[in-house]
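A.,

Following up on our hallway conversation. Structure tokens first:
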């Protein structure tokens, strides 16, 4: 939910600490982003905020938001889960849901939904931590023609 709601890279999600997440304002700080860059990220979906709040209630004395999970399904040691563990969790979710996707697909979906929903390119670029807007545009996948037809307002022809 968090990756879909923020567009985080899996390593960024894995490294999150609770003191970097502001549940009240729906934001988080990525301190260990690609290229060691820090950025502020919006958590744009209420379901992700609710899931984080519920998870926080289960892990109140932890520094890391996503610790390893024991074989009994309980939070393990207070350390960051690995990016590979995030990948395995997504693959497990894929199997349960029947929807084939990767963590990076969630990132691309976030960018596409934001841009097609009218978010300015600069905002989406900052959200994803891209240095260039062109990189962000490569993430976005075009919507089908029927949806494009409704959105296009050319100002001529009709």
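Then the amino acids I'd put at each of the 158 positions:
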């Amino acid at each position: 939910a968090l990756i879909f709601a923020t567009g985080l890279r899996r390593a960024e999600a894995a490294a999150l600490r609770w003191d970097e997440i502001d549940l009240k304002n729906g934001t988080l700080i990525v301190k260990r982003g690609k290229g060691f860059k820090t950025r502020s990220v919006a958590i744009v979906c209420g379901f992700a905020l609710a899931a984080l709040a519920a998870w926080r209630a289960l892990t109140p004395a932890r520094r890391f938001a996503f610790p390893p999970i024991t074989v009994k399904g309980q939070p393990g040691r207070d350390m960051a889960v690995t990016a590979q563990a995030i990948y395995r969790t997504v693959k497990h979710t894929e199997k349960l849901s029947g929807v084939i996707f990767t963590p990076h697909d969630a990132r691309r979906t976030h960018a596409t939904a934001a841009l097609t929903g009218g978010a300015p390119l600069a905002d989406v670029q900052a959200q994803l931590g891209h240095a260039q807007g062109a990189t962000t545009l490569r993430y976005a996948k075009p919507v089908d023609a029927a949806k494009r037809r409704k959105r296009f307002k050319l100002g001529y022809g009709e």
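The chain has eight helices and three strands. Curious whether your intuition agrees with the design.

B.
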